[in-house]
């Protein structure tokens, strides 16, 4: 079973994506979707990705809701910075030390930080486990570091482990 | 062929409001692109369009076509998924290119280089 379908979850997602894209549940499209899902997962297996162990579905749901809420809030914050220029606003870089080393966890953290308006993941230094983050409205570096570590990294550590 | 005038009043108002809000959010992001001063600052405002702006327009599209065809239309969700996964990659690449260039050429807004860094 594992050899036939090495990444069952990915295959299922691809199958659903195919049906959504074609907007049809006809047998022909189902067959095409199944073929695409099968071939793509075989290709994925050939790349030999690092195995993922997803734990804590509750933590995933919590992270998702926190991220959605933060993105909406940041949208308003950045919009007001754009519309009403504030005197003395400082933007700058922070060096964010990280504990998480799992590459999927790091990738997701990078997407979260960059997708949130107002913060931008610039460069990860693997040797020192720090990330250079650019912040649009930098008030207090330590506060930003604490915020990212508490809100996102703690949950990612729960989901992916170290 | 389905036409927009077939849309019932309540749905038309809802879709129009969502579309306008999404367009406005994206517009503010674009204005921010113009108004910010440094390259790194400029990367921030356009994310308004790829997050909240996109979500509002996608929601408008889902409601519009679900009502028009009287069946749930959800493939627009894929737009959101793909945008969320791909735009940060582009932004990171841009920022890293800028950083690399500033380190090589010197000056600009590059961050203080730590002692341990080479």
Automatic annotation (TrEMBL), chain B:
TM segment ranges: 12-34, 46-68, 74-95
> Organism's domain of life?
Bacteria
Pfam families the record matches: PhaG_MnhG_YufB
The record, for InterPro entries, names: PhaG_MnhG_YufB
Task: Enumerate the GO terms in the molecular function aspect.
Answer: sodium:proton antiporter activity
Which keywords has UniProt assigned to this entry?
Membrane, Transmembrane, Transmembrane helix
Which NCBIfam families does this UniProt record tie to the protein?
A: CPA3_mnhG_phaG (TIGR01300)
Tell me the protein's name. Multicomponent K+:H+ antiporter subunit G
């Amino acid at each position: 079973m594992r050899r036939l379908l090495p990444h069952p979850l990915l295959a299922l997602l691809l199958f659903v994506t195919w049906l959504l894209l074609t907007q049809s549940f006809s047998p022909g499209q189902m067959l095409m979707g199944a073929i695409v899902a099968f071939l793509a997962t075989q290709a994925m297996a050939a790349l030999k990705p690092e195995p993922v162990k997803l734990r804590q579905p509750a933590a995933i749901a919590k992270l998702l809701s926190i991220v959605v809420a933060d993105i909406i809030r940041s949208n308003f914050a950045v919009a007001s910075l754009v519309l009403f220029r504030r005197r003395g606003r400082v933007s700058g870089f922070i060096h964010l030390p990280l504990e998480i080393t799992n590459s999927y966890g790091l990738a997701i953290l990078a997407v979260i930080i960059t997708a949130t308006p107002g913060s931008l993941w610039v460069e990860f230094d693997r040797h020192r486990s720090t990330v250079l983050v650019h912040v649009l409205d930098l008030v207090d570096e330590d506060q930003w570091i604490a915020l990212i570590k508490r809100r996102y990294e703690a949950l990612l550590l729960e989901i992916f482990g170290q | 062929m389905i036409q927009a005038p077939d849309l019932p009043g309540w749905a038309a108002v809802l879709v129009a409001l969502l579309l306008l809000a999404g367009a406005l959010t994206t517009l503010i992001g674009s204005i921010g692109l113009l108004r910010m001063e440094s390259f790194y600052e400029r990367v921030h405002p356009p994310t308004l369009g790829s997050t909240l702006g996109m979500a509002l327009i996608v929601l408008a599209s889902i409601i519009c076509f679900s009502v028009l065809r009287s069946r749930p239309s959800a493939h627009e969700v894929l737009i959101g998924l793909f945008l969320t996964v791909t735009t940060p990659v582009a932004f990171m690449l841009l920022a890293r290119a800028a950083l690399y260039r500033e380190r090589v050429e010197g000056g600009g807004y590059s961050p203080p280089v730590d002692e341990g860094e080479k």
